[in-house]
Recover the amino acids of this structure.
């Protein structure tokens, strides 16, 4: 995997992957900041796992929303110190034990982004069925 990040102006940058996908980022916050991109990556990566695990468990999932709440260090470097991921899941006759297992497997075994942060960031999870 390869990527490039090119400075546009001020604190604006465009990142492009070797597959041609692009993301605009801005250190001033007019676009997604790099730290927001990391937080979104946590939620997206883990949600992919949860949905796929539930589908393989033959759960009739119709929606998955991952709400993320992060805390950062007060002083530089302002790294994440805590991230909580709460999954809101909808579907027909969803089994709570299957959901709990899917969330746990994602956090502990499959989510590359969460696992990359392991040992540096306190990551917690929860879920509810809507």
């Amino acid at each position: 995997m390869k990527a490039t990040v090119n400075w546009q102006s001020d604190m604006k940058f465009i990142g492009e992957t070797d597959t041609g996908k692009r993301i605009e980022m801005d250190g001033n916050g007019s676009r997604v900041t790099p730290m927001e991109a990391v937080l979104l990556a946590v939620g997206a990566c883990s949600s992919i796992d949860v949905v796929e695990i539930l589908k393989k468990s033959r759960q009739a999932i119709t929606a998955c929303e991952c709400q993320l709440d992060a805390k950062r260090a007060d002083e530089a470097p302002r790294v994440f110190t805590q991230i909580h991921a709460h999954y809101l899941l909808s579907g027909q006759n969803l089994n709570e034990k299957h959901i709990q297992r899917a969330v746990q497997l994602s956090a502990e075994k499959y989510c590359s982004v969460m696992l990359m942060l392991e040992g540096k960031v306190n990551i917690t999870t929860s879920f509810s069925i809507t």
